[in-house]
Specification:
This protein is α+β, with helices and mostly antiparallel strands. It folds into two domains: 98 residues, no CATH class; 103 residues, no CATH class. It contains four helices and 15 strands. The strands form three sheets. Strands 1, 4, 5, 6, 7, 8 and 9 form a seven-stranded mixed β-sheet that branches.
């Protein structure tokens, strides 16, 4: 039900943006005139709201200047003749704004929230073993080894400019003074992991691999551990 409602909200948001984009008025700057520092379309009495466009002699778009009630308001974008964005300047009610944009702040907050949610999800991959004695922890380690699939594709990762695969620790525990680490292999985008594991590695703290477990077997193993605890 939740996923269905989420899809409906996304669909409404998408349609709203399409409709909004379709209703934005674009006009050539040659069709405008300025009266008392307010922009109008020539021959009209209402201040202009929409996008004023400038063009190169070859007809390519040169600038897009947003106006609200005849005053520049929003992102003024300048383009090269090959369509590349040369400069973006933000205006707030006619004044160039040089602070941090609200949308930038919102993006930063969203990224932080996503990172926190991912961290919480990773932490909940396995229950805590803190209250267990060495004998119980050893039994859990043996369970992992029983599900070892020997998949060497899980043994390594590759990342370029923060994108690729990496290992993220989901649980550590100590068995008879030997530190054990359970790591999930995940895809990462700009160093942020996407919380869907490709598989799992169990290794000593010195990175020596003990075993590898597929994501399918890990689900079964997790259920067994939770039932035992």
């Amino acid at each position: 039900m939740y996923k269905k409602n989420l899809f409906v909200l996304f669909f409404i948001f998408f349609i709203s943006n399409v409709v909004l984009a379709a209703t934005v008025r674009n006009i050539n700057i040659e069709q405008t005139e300025v009266k008392n520092e307010v922009l109008y379309v020539a021959g009209e009495n209402e201040p202009f709201t929409g996008i004023v466009q400038k063009f190169y002699e070859n007809g390519k778009l040169k600038e897009e200047i947003p106006y609200t009630n005849g005053v520049i308001n929003g992102h003024h974008i300048q383009y090269s003749e090959n369509g590349k964005v040369l400069k973006k300047t933000f205006y707030d009610n006619g004044m160039e704004y040089k602070g941090v944009l609200a949308e930038t702040i919102a993006l930063i907050i969203a990224v932080i929230a996503i990172v926190i949610l991912i961290a919480v999800k990773i932490m909940r991959t396995l229950p805590s073993f803190k209250m267990l004695d060495d004998y119980q922890k050893e039994r859990i380690l043996k369970r992992f080894i029983e599900y070892d699939n020997g998949d060497e594709n899980l043994y390594s990762s590759y990342r370029l400019n923060g994108c690729g695969t990496g290992f993220y620790t989901v649980r550590t525990f100590t068995v008879y003074n030997e530190k054990i680490r359970v790591c999930a292999k995940m895809i990462s985008v700009f160093f942020i992991p996407i919380p869907f594991a490709l598989g799992y590695l169990v290794c000593y703290d010195n990175k020596k691999i003990i075993c590898s477990v597929s994501k399918e077997h890990f689900k079964i193993l997790k259920k067994e551990i939770e039932e035992e605890l």
